[in-house]
Design brief:
20% of the residues lie in helices and 44% in strands. It has helices at 61-70, 132-145, 152-159, and strands at residues 7-12, 17-22, 26-28, 35-39, 47-55, 76-77, 84-94, 97-110, 114-125, 149-150. The protein starts with 6 loop residues before the first strand and ends with a helix.
Length: 160
């Protein structure tokens, strides 16, 4: 059995955020402004959402980023990108269906004066929480989102 998976690079928010997702996933209409949604076609459980929060004109971006993450546990720095990451999860319900949501918050500085936070979430039906494929997807997504990249050139191009 092979553990190799094909991944595709996704660049969203006019190129401001880039990350990888499994090749077989598709983008679907989220119904929410400012949010991208990905899933395996016709899936009954496993929806991956991404949103982006930007704070501009920050005098000291690195200090502001540290402040944003200072009140949270399990924060780590990603060496490859310099981003701060944290992960949480919670139970929820929609239309009577019990759900479990995994969250990853990735924050980074974009020169010269912006701070960004990408909010990634992966929602599964609670009855699928202990399935091997769910655990595998959550592990993979954690690895992929930790390598998400905020593209400074996209901000520069947006401002000109």
């Amino acid at each position: 059995m092979s553990d190799v998976r094909r991944l595709d690079e996704v660049s969203i928010f006019n190129g401001k955020l880039t990350f990888l997702i499994p090749h077989e996933w598709i983008e679907v209409e989220s119904g929410e402004d400012g949010t991208y949604l990905y899933q395996v076609p016709d899936v009954r459980s496993g929806w991956f959402r991404v949103s982006l929060i930007t704070i501009s004109n920050v005098a000291r971006p690195a200090d502001r980023l540290a402040e944003l993450f200072s009140n949270h546990e399990n924060v780590s720095a990603t060496e490859a990108t310099g981003n701060l990451m944290r992960r949480t999860e919670k139970d929820s319900e929609q239309d009577g269906t019990p759900l479990h949501i995994f969250y990853w918050f990735g924050g980074g500085c974009v020169p010269p004066n912006s701070v960004c936070e990408a909010v990634f979430s992966y929602t599964v039906q609670s009855n699928a929480l202990d399935h091997d494929d769910t655990r595998s997807e959550v592990t993979l997504l954690g690895q992929l989102v930790s390598k998400a990249h905020f593209n400074p050139a996209a901000w520069t191009n947006a401002e000109t």
